[in-house]
Description:
The longest helix has 17 residues, at about 170-185. The chain has one domain (about 5-190): Pyruvate-ferredoxin oxidoreductase, PFOR, domain III (Pyruvate-ferredoxin Oxidoreductase, domain 3). A hairpin with a 2-residue loop joins strand 7 and strand 8. Strands 2-3-1-4-5-6-9 form a seven-stranded mixed β-sheet. The protein has a two-stranded antiparallel sheet with strand order 7-8. Helix 1 (about 20-30) crosses helix 4 (about 155-165), helix 2 (about 125-130) packs antiparallel against helix 5 and helix 3 (about 140-145) crosses helix 5. The protein has helices at about 20-30, 125-130, 140-145, 155-165, 170-185; strands spanning about 5-15, 35-45, 50-60, 75-80, 100, 115-120, 135, 135-140, 190. By secondary structure, it is α/β, with parallel strands linked by helices. The chain starts with 5 loop residues before the first strand and ends with a strand. The protein is globular.
Amino acid sequence: MGERKLVEIRFHGRGGQGAVTAANILAGAALRDGNKGVQAFPFFGAERRGAPIRAFARISDEEINLRSEIYNPDMVIVLDESIMEIANVLEGLKEGGAIVINTTKSCSDYDFPKKLTVATVDATGIAIKNDLLVGGIPVVNTPILGAIPKVLDKVTLESIEEEIRERWKGELGERNARAAREAYEKTEVMR
Length: 191
């Protein structure tokens, strides 16, 4: 995505996948990278594991005074591909925006109506490989974060890894950081 002063990001996932944590880590990493304004916040409906949820992040070169939900994001992150069957994840997405999808499919398997940057990565497979499971369910937030620097120039993989290691110390932090790096390396991007 081209350089924009304010970038607004909407995460779509299911309860328990870590979308809210992902938004918070992304905001922290963006701050590490010198962005002056960051925000991360959730939107909850039914607060239960598996229920569709949304989380949001804003990253800016300047202080952010907005306090509303994000209605016209520059980027959409889809933590669970099945959400796309029940929610219009592209709703309000700006022309020329980007979508990052956790899927085993290729970018060319999607035919989106707008001119978008599409990025795909098997975040679930990476989470399983790195033993990132809670109650037997893969937690895909750190792998999906690794895909973001492939399409967004306001945050670096290194800052995401540092923020992950700060949140989870020791081996758990290393596994999550390794998952983010692996996702970065395996993310396919189509512009």
